[in-house]
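Below is a filled-in request sheet from our internal design queue. Each sheet records the structural input a requester submitted and the sequence that came back. We keep these sheets so that new team members can see what a complete request looks like end to end.

REQUESTER: design group, bay 2
PRIORITY: normal
MODE: inverse folding
CHAIN LENGTH: 386
BACKBONE (tokenized):
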């Protein structure tokens, strides 16, 4: 391959990662900020700016309400800035509020009721969850999924199932009381339950059987070579082509499945973070923008629908992270409002300032840690280029 061909291949490889990353992140950020924006407008708050990205503006325009819609060069987030905000992180400026006329205060965020302020702050994460539910529901309705029965076709010799009483031909009916309809349902429950004993209800040739097994934590590779640590019990489904069913769902059922899928991502994320805190799981699976970019490129190579589903997963993650009670994030604002509701008055400006500084430090440390984890990806990219 000539130098010119290598250059074209490098450019195409870069765009194959960059474009899906920008698509996924822009959609998620836009919906998050749109949630804040719409509820703020509904509550009568004057919005000065709606920004996708940070830093210098690439282009923008004013709408008829005077809001500046802008796109900036650093596509790693966004913000909605109210007329009385100190900055794009929605930190209120009491000095700016004090200088306002009574008419101007009608459109100030700080002048709204506690319920209105809470609703505006919570609207961003809620919008992320709704986006995920809609994407999943549309996928279940118009695309569908391939499913097969949760039957045991093979027991791995070194697997937990082989020593827990499972037999070839067993059909798994439920796990810990959760109904299991497909083999994927079984995999999902087991993979997220490493080192935790599960109760399996089995249909063995028409006879109900109850078995207990504790999934072992194992490192596996996905189709792209990414390493994952999940729970496994050592069973396989060797389904023939005729045993796979392509299934679509009605709109109402799809909506319910979308909610279930979103709830699963939330619980799985919280479970992983709990295991990290308790020392049962390594934190090396926490990633930042570089990992998101790599995964976006990998998923986009499969098709647009998987990329949409990745957008839904990331949307749930962004919504959940923003609800963490860390000052500077939406959850930190809600924490302050909760204290305000109990005290019947806001926290002092000094206390809130200290809280925001602590929150900024925590967020920066998390970003640095995630970037450190991502350095391995950068090394792989550089090795590939070399």
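RETURNED SEQUENCE:
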């Amino acid at each position: 391959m000539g130098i010119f061909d290598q250059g074209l291949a490098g450019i195409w490889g870069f765009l194959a990662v960059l474009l899906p990353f920008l698509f996924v992140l822009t959609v998620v950020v836009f919906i998050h900020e749109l949630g804040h924006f719409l509820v703020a407008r509904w509550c009568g708050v004057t919005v000065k700016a709606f920004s996708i990205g940070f830093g210098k503006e690439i282009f923008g325009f004013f709408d008829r309400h005077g809001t500046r819609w802008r796109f900036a060069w650093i596509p790693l987030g966004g913000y909605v800035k109210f007329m009385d905000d100190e900055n794009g992180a929605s930190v209120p400026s009491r000095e700016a509020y004090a200088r306002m006329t009574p008419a101007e205060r009608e459109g100030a965020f700080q002048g709204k009721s506690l319920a209105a302020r809470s609703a505006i702050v919570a609207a961003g994460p809620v919008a992320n969850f709704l986006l995920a539910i809609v994407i999943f529901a549309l996928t279940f309705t118009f695309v569908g999924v391939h499913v097969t029965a949760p039957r045991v076709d093979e027991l791995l010799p070194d697997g937990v199932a082989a020593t827990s009483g499972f037999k070839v031909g067993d059909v798994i009916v439920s796990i810990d009381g959760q109904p299991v309809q497909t083999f994927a349902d079984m995999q999902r429950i087991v993979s997220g339950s490493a080192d935790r004993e599960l109760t399996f209800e089995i249909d063995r040739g028409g006879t109900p059987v109850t078995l207990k097994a504790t999934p072992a934590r194992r490192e596996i590779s996905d189709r792209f070579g990414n390493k994952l640590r999940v729970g496994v019990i050592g069973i396989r489904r060797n389904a023939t082509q005729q045993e796979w069913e392509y299934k679509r769902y009605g709109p109402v059922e799809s909506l319910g499945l979308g909610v279930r899928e979103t709830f699963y991502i939330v619980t799985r994320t919280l479970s992983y973070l709990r295991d990290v805190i308790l020392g049962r799981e390594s934190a090396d699976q926490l990633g930042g923008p570089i990992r998101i970019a790599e995964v976006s490129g990998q998923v986009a190579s499969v098709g647009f629908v998987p990329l949409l589903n990745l957008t839904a997963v990331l949307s749930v993650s962004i919504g959940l992270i923003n609800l963490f009670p860390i000052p500077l994030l939406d959850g930190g604002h809600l924490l302050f409002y909760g204290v305000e509701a109990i005290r019947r008055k806001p926290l002092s400006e000094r206390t809130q300032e200290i809280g925001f500084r602590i929150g900024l430090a925590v967020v920066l440390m998390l970003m640095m840690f995630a970037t450190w984890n991502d350095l391995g990806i950068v090394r792989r990219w550089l090795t590939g280029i070399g």
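SHEET NOTES:
- The radius of gyration is 24 Å.
- The CA atoms of residues 206 and 339 lie 57 Å apart.
FILED BY: M.R.
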